[in-house]
Structures are given as structure tokens and as C-alpha cells.
Specification:
With 143 residues, the chain is mainly alpha-helical. The chain contains 7 helices and no strands. The chain has one domain. The protein is 79% helix and 0% strand. Helix 2 crosses helix 3.
């Protein structure tokens, strides 16, 4: 059996494209998920009430911190800038969401937050890939 065929070695050349696609999808998901809170004080108040109902301390302070954390990390992932830092922050953010909000839910309820923890960890370990602002900065520093 041909090892390249068995392990699909030819797909390796598209790894950075896969990282880009995952970054774009995750970034868009994070930005879309909080944009209503950014543009509407009423929605931010609703989110603050949600956090309070889930026993977050200082929910009126934590709500904008959570919203802007997701917004900034979503934009960072989309651009591929400070990707490792964004990954760490996303992983921590969604571990907190798991513990504070999703703990009492079944596995399906946990799933989106668990996936975001995994994606955050993945990007903190691998970085953005070659199709990113991070890679552009690294190339310019090497010159």
C-alpha cells in the first residue's frame, strides 16, 4: 500500500488554507455572536441580566468584558493577528462559560463552548498559519 495514499499526504499542502478557513469561520462566529450587544445598550443589559442569573459577580461589568473579549478575539482570528494570544484568551473565556453557564446542561449544551476551547487551544499551539498578518509580520522581521 502506498503510504502517501493511505495517509493522504497530498492534502498537507492545503494545511494553511484549512487554518485560514477555520480562523475565518470562528472569527465570524465570535463577532456575529456579540455584535448585537455592541450596537444595542438594551441587548447588553439583557446579556448582563443573563450573566447575573448565572451567578457571575459584577455582571454589569463582566458583560461588556465578555462581549468585547469575543469581539476583539474574533477580529484577531479573522485577520490572523496575535493569533496565539487570541487562542489563549478564547480558551480561557470559554472554559469560564463552561463552568459558569453550561455545567448543568447535557453534552449538546456544552458542545459549542467545548469546541471553542479546543479551537482556542489549537490556535495557541499552531498559530495562524502562513496566510495571516502574523506570518506577514514574521516575514518582514526576517528581512
Amino acid at each position: 500500500m502506498n503510504r502517501d495514499i493511505f495517509f493522504l499526504e497530498g492534502l498537507r499542502q492545503f494545511a494553511d488554507l484549512g487554518l485560514l478557513l477555520l480562523r475565518l469561520l470562528t472569527g465570524a462566529f465570535l463577532v456575529y455572536g456579540v455584535l448585537d450587544n455592541v450596537v444595542s445598550a438594551g441587548r447588553m443589559e439583557e446579556f448582563s441580566a443573563f450573566l447575573k442569573s448565572n451567578n457571575f459577580p459584577e455582571a454589569s461589568v463582566m458583560a461588556p468584558i465578555s462581549v468585547y473579549t469575543q469581539l476583539i478575539c474574533g477580529v484577531a482570528l479573522t485577520l490572523g493577528v496575535l493569533t496565539r494570544w487570541a487562542g489563549i484568551v478564547i480558551a480561557i473565556h470559554f472554559v469560564i462559560a463552561l463552568v459558569m453557564v453550561h455545567w448543568s446542561q447535557d453534552f449538546r449544551g456544552w458542545w459549542p463552548a467545548i469546541v471553542l476551547v479546543g479551537i482556542g487551544l489549537q490556535y495557541s499551539l499552531t498559530g495562524a498559519g502562513s496566510i495571516s498578518v502574523d506570518a506577514l509580520i514574521a516575514r518582514n522581521e526576517d528581512e
